[in-house]
Each structure stands twice: as structure tokens, then as C-alpha cells.
Target: RNA polymerase-binding protein RbpA
Amino acid sequence: MASGNAIRGSRVGAGPMGEAERGDTAPRIRISYWCANGHETKPSFSQESGVEPPEQWDCPRCGFPAGTDKDNPPAPPRNEPYKTHLAYVKERRSDADGEAILNEALEGLRARGLIR
Ligand SMILES: [Zn+2]
Model:
């Protein structure tokens, strides 16, 4: 049994010929992308599809966008705590604001003669 498996394995393992054949059937290009943290990722793209590689690639290590220009990587996505704070304040004021907006809307409708 053991010897049978060994023979099978050697046949599947192929040689340098098998590898060359595989490379010919699916030509692929590898492009390096760098993120703002200096991570390099090299996704490979099939040339057969005719699809051009994207300008940016999400860094698999930190999630930042990565670009093909090593010295000038894309800026990381903005996540400003100030913005969320502002949104929080807006949310708290929404009740009073909602009433004001409703009154304004009603007045607008009255002005246009849509309601009395
Ligand atoms: Zn990264």
C-alpha cells in the first residue's frame, strides 16, 4: 500500500515541464501596492481577463488603501472623532430641530397655498 501511494505521488508531482505548462495557460501579473503604513502587498491579476489592475488595493494587514506608488501611498481613510461628536450633538437636538423644521415646512406649504 505504501509503495503504491509513493508511485502515485511522484506522478502527480510532475516536473519542471508541468510547472511551465501551468504558467502558460494562465498568465498572471503581480503588482506591488503600498499602504500609508508601509505594508507591501502583491496581489496577482490574470492577464487573460483583459481587466486592468485597480489603482488602489486594500491592505490586507491594516485595511488602509494601498497604491502602486511606494513613495506616495493613498491617504488613510478619515475617521474624525470630532465628526461623530457633532453627529451626537445633532442627534440630541433633533427633537427641537424637528419641530422647527416641521413648522418651517408647514409655513412653506401655506405660502404656496397648498394648505390653509
Ligand atoms: Zn497596511
Q: What stands out?
A: Residues 81-111 form the longest helix (31 residues). The longest strand covers residues 28-30. The beta strands are 28-30, 33-35, 40-41, 44-46, 56-58, 65-67. The two ends are 94 Å apart (CA to CA).
